[in-house]
Give the backbone structure.
Amino acid sequence: MQPSNLTRWIILGVVGIVFAFPILAMVEFTFRDGLSGGHTLDHWTGLFSEDAARTYRGLFTAVGNSLLLAVVTVGIVLVILLPTMILVHLQFPRLKRVLEFICIIPITVPAIVLVVGLAPVYAVVVQVFGGSIWTLAFAYGITVLPYAYRAIQSNLDAVDMITLSEAGRTLSANWGRVLWHVLLPNLKRGVLAASFISVAVVLGEFTIASLLNRVNLQTALLQVGQSDPYVAIIFALLALLLAFVLLLSIARIGRSRRTGSDS
């Protein structure tokens, strides 16, 4: 039994209010003028002042670190997870359940427990690759596995990849051309969804970076929040805005794809 349109709108309205209320409170807080009770734009305009680059240099560095981690993490998903899933889907379908189980495991393990297991591994990673911030993407590549897997797998199940690949091979195309010109265009929605969700997860991650003594956006926000909570909330809102834009982009791409298929 499908719920009526009225029921759907009521549910969406309640969920929207639950999410919107704390966000609106955050926006209002960024305009407060201290304890005077008034409101001001100084906290926003102060970010563009000459002293802001020096005062919040650590925060801007953390933003750069998080963006670098997002790029490397997405690269890990696209270079390792995506080809593996395509290979299993086409050549080893009996291993689909095994791969799904492996990819879902990280969501069942608390981040702090995951760090305990990663700590000795990172002792080796630091010796091999150094202590650069980008090495944290190895851990993030594990944490985003459940979300990236579901996004790509739903697209794989919706497209007859076996028939497409066999058609390409019948036309004498090698596996590289089949993958690039036939399979990936049909997996665009799943790949973009996995990439955007990975970016959103990386931008919001705190526990692993904090316990492994790395500086990313969330750890920097905690430090800045102890001295200037207004700037910390402003950057948190900007990170939320970026995540919303990415999720809306996924929905728009999926809608445009369905529209193209219907036409």
In short: The mean pLDDT is 86.
